[in-house]
């Protein structure tokens, strides 16, 4: 006797876009953090903390959406907040091209996460 496996619906376009934005932001935060560590003492503690928080939150958020966690909506809202804080921290160094790129990625991710936070998962 064979059991049928439950079918899992594919992620909606909006959810796919949010997962992609989260993963892109995660990568940019990791790259920015690495660059900050290489330059030494120039990176402020506040910026490093924001980068770490944002990197962790975006990856966790994407993971929760992909596994369709019932907590994904709440995680999206928290992720948006972490992205906002990171964007603000990065913009404290507006002349640094890498920081500006990171802030832009964080803002995009925040927008998609806020949209997902209001959408059913």
Short note summarizing the structure:
By secondary structure, the protein is mostly helical.
What number is the mean pLDDT?
90
C-alpha end-to-end distance: 33 Å
Can you tell me the overall shape? elongated
Structural class of the helices, strands and pairings?
Answer: mainly alpha
- Sheet with the most strands? none
Roughly what percent helix?
A: over 70%
Tally of DSSP β-strands? 0
Spatial extent as radius of gyration: 16 Å
Portion in beta strands: under 5%
Describe the structure.
By secondary structure, the chain is mostly helical. About 75% of the residues lie in helices and about 0% in strands. It contains four helices and no strands. Helix 3 runs antiparallel to helix 4 (about 95-115). The mean pLDDT is about 90.
Output the keywords.
mainly alpha, single chain, 121 residues, elongated
Question: What secondary-structure arrangement, pairings included, does this model have?
Answer:
Layout: H1 13-39, H2 45-66, H3 72-90, H4 97-117
């Amino acid at each position: 006797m064979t059991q049928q496996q439950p079918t899992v619906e594919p992620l909606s376009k909006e959810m796919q876009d949010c997962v992609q934005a989260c993963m892109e932001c995660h990568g940019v935060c990791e790259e920015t953090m690495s660059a900050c560590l290489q330059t030494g003492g120039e990176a402020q503690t506040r910026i490093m903390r924001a980068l770490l928080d944002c990197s962790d939150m975006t990856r966790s958020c994407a993971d929760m959406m992909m596994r369709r966690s019932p907590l994904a909506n709440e995680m999206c809202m928290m992720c948006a907040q972490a992205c906002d804080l990171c964007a603000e921290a990065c913009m404290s160094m507006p002349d640094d091209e890498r920081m500006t790129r990171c802030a832009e990625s964080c803002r995009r991710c925040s927008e998609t996460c806020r949209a997902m936070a209001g959408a059913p998962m």
